[in-house]
Amino acid sequence: MSPIRFRLILLATLACAVGCASAGGPGGANRVIARSSFPNVVPRIATLRAEPAEIPLVVGQIFMFDSLRIRAYDASGRSLGLLPVYNRHMEPGAAQLDPRGGVRATQPGESMLLVTPPLWEGYGAGRVAPSAQVRIRVSGP
Q1: Which of 31, 120, 131, 140 gives 20 to 30 Å between its CA and that of 10?
Q2: To which H or E segment does residue 70 belong?
Q3: What is the residue extent of each domain of the chain?
């Protein structure tokens, strides 16, 4: 390999490494956090952001959780990636948790879905768990 080619490859590799690090690691904000890294990542979560933040439904419709993306951020606002699993809580109202892994619209009105990091009780060191709220707006049939 010629010295010039070697320098070009090295420069490209360094540029990629710097770009990946500034975007929150390989894959940046779209990187899914591996479950094996939860012990290291979950305690660093300061905030969560849900996408979408609002879900419009019609009575009887189900929104499946595989369409909900939960992004985790550290205290400096740097993306840690997407949570592949998360805790879900919802008070019954216009919508309710569906046992098939989603939210079912039951009557017109609004409900709030609250999501928190997985295993927070074990890794959160007594801190209040960060959370994201998802507004569920249900219209009539």
Answers
A1: 31
A2: strand 69-73
A3: 32-139
